Amino acid sequence: MHSETDRDPLTADVIVVGAGPSGLMLAGELRLGGASVVVLEKLERPTGQSRGLGFTARALESFAQRGLDTRFPGLETSPVGHFGGVQFDYTVLDGGHFGARGIPQSQTEAVLEAWAVELGVDIRRGWEFTALDQAPDRVRVTARGAGGEQRLSSAYLVGADGGNSPVRRAAGIGFPGAPATRGMYLADVRGCGLRPRFLGELLDGGMVMAAPLGEGVDRIIVCEHGTLPAGRDQEVEFAEVAAAWQRLTGEDISGGQADWVSSFTDATRQAEVYRRGRVLVVGDAAHVHLPAGGQGLSVGVQDAVNLGWKLAATVTGWAPAGLLDTYHGERHPVGERLLMNTRAQGQIFLGGPEADPMRQLFTELLAHDEVRRHLAGIVTGLDVRYDGMGDTPPAEAHPLTGRRLPHRMLRTASGDRDTTGLLRAAQGVLLDLSGDAGLARTAAGHKDRVVTVTGAPATERDADTFADAGAVLVRPDGYVAWAGSDEAGLRSALGRWFGAPAAA
């Protein structure tokens, strides 16, 4: 145990354990906020395996806020998605689509790693986290690599190290939830010439899915009733997958070749807290669930975008009191809804004949626009609204308050500008829509943290979005902290989310 008087220098402001999508996104966000970052990753090189093949509409918006969407060449979105295997059109939601498709997780990680390195993130591969020691003013971390044991020190430590998170366990953060009730195999196979089953096919003994990935490769998922495959960290042989496929379909794929095979379950768990002292968790370290609709990667990325600016503000010294605690307050409820909807989808999609009445009911309900909007909002993440943005109760606040700022156009003196591009630098943005000099003066003391853009809605649709708001204050994560016309309300929101004015 280190003593409190042991004043070793900080290795970095923040150490992130895990170089998956959540960890890399967080590292980039922290650098944009001015924090120094070290990422520890136990793998010496990326595996190239891709459980995920895309991300949701809100995750795509988060990438676009930082200009990362252009780094995915040929990016396509799908207007049609599903809930529990029941298809419907997601464009019933304003700005809605099922998400980006056909993008292997390995590509997403490569894009995020290149971006993080460009921003100055120190990524150290081949180093496995083994222990932590929290002191009042820092966290000391022990890691093991080819060169032996290494000790590092940082102001904060973040576990982005997966569902079995050693960081979460070392911090004593509980991970309650429901154990697995079923398991599935996942594999990319060559030379099998499988009939596409994009949304899966329900059979007497379970469910199979097949989707062509190109170049003779098919992504397959096999869920056999009554079978509980090995956990995530146990090796699975292709022969097991082929045998299960043949039992369910009668098709022999044993002559094919697997690029890789894995297994997963429907275990559903959530960290009891997302922060304990100077240790925080994001992504799978905070929540695990059935992978339905590509939500796991996407919610993890959004965890990172929510946390990044708040943690950077804390270590660089301008964060108002309690800002870091809003990470748990805002994202834990989102995680709860993630677990709820994926469990519901599992029961609808993977249940046996006993689930037929539920499937029929959902099919009938999806004939109604309001139901489609509600379910599309849940899966895409576009329906997230954070309460507690200000003194005004949510029911009385402007409809934008607490919600994401949708992609809209403003007419400014320098030309038309889109609201998504205004967030590129991960700073706060004040949209001055009325030209009120008093509102601009109110924000002047925060100009090092909040950029003021004066303009007017470019179209009638844009004007409808900002109706009755003389100005809109947007946080770096793209969520609206305040919308209105009174200087007192703006001043309060600036203090709550961006601290004291620089002049003070």
UniProtKB/TrEMBL annotation:
Pfam families the record matches: FAD_binding_3, Rng_hyd_C
Cofactors required: FAD
InterPro entries in the cross-refs: FAD-bd (IPR002938), FAD/NAD-bd_sf (IPR036188), RIFMO-like (IPR050641)
Keyword line: FAD, Flavoprotein
Domain FAD-binding, residue spans: 12-341
Transmembrane segments: none
Name by which UniProt lists this protein: 2-polyprenyl-6-methoxyphenol hydroxylase and related FAD-dependent oxidoreductases
Provenance organism: Streptomyces globisporus
